Amino acid sequence: MIFSVDTQRLLAMHYVYPLPLQKLQQLLSPVDVLSYLEETHPNEIASTLQITRQKALQISQNFQRVMNLPLKEVYAQANIFPIPFNHPYFPAQLFEIPSPPTVLYVKGQRALLERDKRIAIIGSRKATAYTKVAIDIIVPSLVENEYTVVSGLARGADTMAHEAAIKFGGHTIAVLGHGFNFLYPKENRALANKMAESHLLITEYPPYMKPTKWQFPMRNRLISGLSQALVVTEAALKSGTLITTECALEQGKDVFVVPGPIHAEQSKGTNKLLLEGAIPVCDGHQIVETLSLFSSKN
Fold it and tell me: To the nearest whole percent, how much of the chain has pLDDT over 90?
């Protein structure tokens, strides 16, 4: 359900307490507590959000402080564009994933969110030269057919995917696991700056939130949620890449996997995915044709 909610109040609430959409709905329905949060007793906030009274009091105090700040102007000065869940730019497909975000913060070409043709390319942070070869074979056809490449700006395969999309003249989106005041990994700063100008950076976290280990698995659901399908290049048996793959399968997305040498550690996870029914892929044309075939049947 799409609620009518004051943007300043929503952004202020998300800044002090970046709650997911299900939690926000508890503040909006059946009674719109958010519209009079300053006057709400901490006990009511605690009961509504199922948090401690001390936490509720802290939220109330911080909310009143942030409400006095010109948040939209502050974000604009930092070239950050907030997209609440009820904004026209908010990708509709994210309502279909577990725990949709309440707000997306973006930098760069927002129009990329209006394009439906998006493919996620992910793989190992310890990707070998094999991943680069595979990506350089796959990406040109995707770019030629106007697909935007989505990944996570991590070391290894993510970096290669973003760089290949740029190199072959396409567009790319990076989903971050932290706020814009930070960048992880630091060695991707130049790439991130380039993407913030000509491509797109996305995060569900307010600018001040530092990278923490639990946030990266959470952002994986956005990578798959934004994409029509997922391409996996290399992955060990115990790999964060497989978390994103699980998200994609739960969301009903097609998963394409690059077969790898049976002796290679970074191919054991991908080869296992193939045994479990993932689609083997050897070039980008195959992905385009498969997705076109499925779409024509729907």
Answer: 78
Distance between CA atoms of residues 250 and 221, nearest Å: 10
- What is the mean pLDDT of the segment spanning 168-180? 97
Class of CATH domain 108-297: alpha beta
pLDDT at 4 over 60: no
Residues whose CB is less than 8 angstroms from the CB of residue 122 and which lie 6 or more positions away in sequence, other chains included = 151, 152, 157, 158, 161, 223, 230, 231, 232, 233, 241, 244, 245
How far apart (Å, rounded) are the C-alpha atoms in residues 235 and 267?
A: 6
Tell me the pLDDT tens digit for each residue of 87-132. Answer: 999 999 999 998 899 999 999 999 999 998 999 999 999 999 999 9
Annotated domain spans of the chain:
1-77, 108-297
- Exposed, middle or buried by CB within 10 Å (0-12, 13-18, 19+), for 81? middle
Tokens linked to 210: 């530092």
Token pair, residue 40, equals 């709400």
Do residues 121 and 161 lie in contact, with contact meaning Cβ atoms separated by under 8 Å? yes
Three-state DSSP at 141 gives helix
pTM: 0.94
Which strand ranges, in their side-by-side order, compose the sheet holding 200-203? 81-84, 103-108, 200-203, 172-175, 148-151, 118-122, 229-232, 254-257, 279-280
Tokens 């102007």 locate to 73
What residues contact 99, with CB distance under 8 A and at least 6 apart? 20, 21, 22, 218, 221
Task: Say whether 200 sits in a helix, a strand or coil.
Answer: strand
Q: Please give the average per-residue pLDDT across 31-44, as a whole number.
A: 91
Interval 240-275: pLDDT, tens? 788 888 888 888 899 999 999 999 999 999 999 999
